[in-house]
Write a structure and sequence with these properties.
Number of domains: 3
Number of helices: 10
Strand content: 15-25%
CATH topology of the largest domain: Beta-Lactamase
Shape: rod-shaped
GO cellular component, one term: plasma membrane
Order of helices and strands: HHEEHEEEHHHHEHEEHEEHEE
Strand order of the largest sheet: 2-1-5-4-3
EC number: 2.7.13.3
Distance between the termini: 40 Å
CATH architecture of the largest domain: 2-Layer Sandwich
Structural class: alpha+beta
Main location: membrane
Keywords: Kinase, Membrane, Phosphoprotein, Transferase, Transmembrane, Transmembrane helix, Two-component regulatory system
Domain Histidine kinase: 254-470
Length: 470
């Protein structure tokens, strides 16, 4: 995706998150209000029924104790502001004839035929039903009961006041919905910006990397969420990429530096052979020299490639269970004559249980490099000790020589590519042996270390630690 499309994309994501948060808040508020609305509505209706039920019982007792005449007088002189004045009250004889009827106000009209019909349908001791006023007016909640003489008493109340309260409640909700929507929008905007902030930091870093700044890293915050983990992984990826690029550059620098000499020799011998008149033997020697120098170049390139692959963990290791002592014996059989020619005494202290999960070919080359290094720097008549030490979780390979040792200044430099100490300038070498050892051992999740001096200011001891289960 081009950088020109990043801002619109982020804008769309931010807008979607903001709208989604606002919508969720509005829907949540609506659900909560609906629940409260129905709870309040149900509570008010139950309250109205409770009032009607108590009035029905009160009027029934009044009629049965004091008579219908006194009951009529009660409603005749009741003031309009009294609560009872707002009630519908009707009394019917056992034959169904209306003996008394009170309506709350003149405009209140009830279909009496419908009322009688509903009463006939509900013949229980206490019954309840609802019906509407004539001409589509308010709904009336009606409770009725049967008196001792068989007469029927009904008490009703309009739901107008209840409906008014509920409508006011709805208006309050609609007025509150506007600030809720505004809060939802602002909150969503804040949260979306906060959520996308790490993404913007990633984009900023990517733009700097696009401009060539591989050292750029995304700042890590104090939180412990998925986006912080993404930033950590992104920085680790950048570290690896920077290491690969740096290693590639360094490899090219080393390549140019180290193959210049054999290439110059190769070209010189070839040029000499072409410009001089010699016999077949001189041409053969020139070709032999060219072959040897080209072989050195190929060997150098192969070792450099192996080191780079091991350092970057891109080389596939052929892990198998091997006894390290067996690998040491194989390599020693190749170096035995070289040590004898230099009159160097070799002491082997091998543990027969020193197995580990390793790439046998690479670890054999590690052992060979350490022995070659010991052979190179141990003076005639000296001593080299190679031992393996078996532990529960790891195996140690230790190679000790009686050479001049390494100076303290060189202690951290011996692992660098192409580094050669002043003591080794007279010896042939590529300066990659210890670098290869370190890269391969660390690729096995092991450790390599050096200790100097070993005894009386002389000697060097290299120790390789390999895990049993790599």
């Amino acid at each position: 995706m081009s950088s020109s499309r990043l801002k619109p994309t982020l804008f769309r994501i931010s807008t979607k998150l903001t709208l989604a948060y606002s919508l969720v808040l509005i829907l949540s508020s609506t659900v909560i209000f609906s629940f409260l609305y129905f709870q309040i509505s149900h509570g008010l209706q139950e309250q109205e029924r409770g009032v009607l039920s108590s009035k029905l019982e009160e009027y029934r007792n009044r009629i049965e104790v004091r008579g219908l005449g006194e009951f009529k007088d009660y409603f005749l002189y009741i003031p309009n502001y009294d609560r009872d004045a707002a009630l519908l009250v009707s009394v019917f004889s056992p034959k169904g004839e209306e003996t008394y009827h009170h309506e709350p106000f003149p405009s209140f009209k009830l279909n009496m035929e419908k009322l009688k019909e509903e009463m006939n349908r509900h013949r229980g001791q206490i019954f309840e039903f609802a019906m509407r006023e004539m001409h589509g007016g308010d709904t009336i909640i009606i409770l009725g009961t049967t008196l001792k003489d068989g007469s029927r008493l009904v008490v009703g109340k309009s739901t107008e006041s209840l409906s008014l309260q509920l409508r006011n409640l709805q208006k309050i909700f609609w007025w509150l919905l506007l600030p809720v929507a505004l809060i939802g929008f602002l909150g969503g905007l804040f949260l979306s910006n906060r959520t996308l902030s790490p993404v913007r930091e990633l984009i900023t870093s990517m733009k700097k990397i696009e401009g060539g700044s591989l050292s750029t890293r995304v700042p890590i915050g104090g939180s412990d969420d998925e986006l912080e983990e993404l930033k950590v992984l992104f920085n680790k990826m950048l570290d690896k990429i920077e290491g690969l690029v740096s290693g590639l550059k360094e490899a090219f620098d080393h390549l140019a530096h180290d193959i210049r000499t054999p290439v110059t020799r190769l070209r010189g011998r070839a040029e000499l052979a072409l410009t001089s008149e010699g016999d077949v033997e001189s041409y053969r020697e020139a070709l032999q020299s060219c072959f040897e120098n080209s072989d050195k170049i190929l060997n150098f390139l192969q070792v450099l490639t192996d080191i780079t692959e091991a350092e970057n963990r891109s080389k596939k290791l052929k892990i198998e269970k091997k006894f390290i002592s067996d690998l040491v014996k194989e390599i020693m059989s190749l170096y035995e004559m070289a040590f004898e020619e230099k009159d160097i005494r070799v002491v082997q202290k091998l543990d027969s249980h020193d197995w580990a999960m390793v790439d046998a070919k690479l670890i054999s080359r590690v052992i060979a490099n350490l022995l070659d290094n010991a052979h190179k720097y141990t003076p005639p008549g000296g001593e080299v000790t190679i031992e393996t030490i078996n532990h529960t979780e790891n195996v140690i390979i230790r190679v000790t020589d009686s050479g001049p040792g390494i100076s303290a200044d060189e202690h951290g430099m011996i692992w660098q590519k192409l580094y050669r100490s002043d003591k080794s300038r007279s010896e042939y070498g590529m300066g990659l042996g210890l670098t290869f050892v370190k890269a391969v051992v660390e690729a096995h999740d092991g450790k390599v270390s050096v200790r100097i001096p070993v005894k009386d200011g002389h000697g060097t001891e290299f120790e390789v630690l390999l895990q049993k289960m790599s």
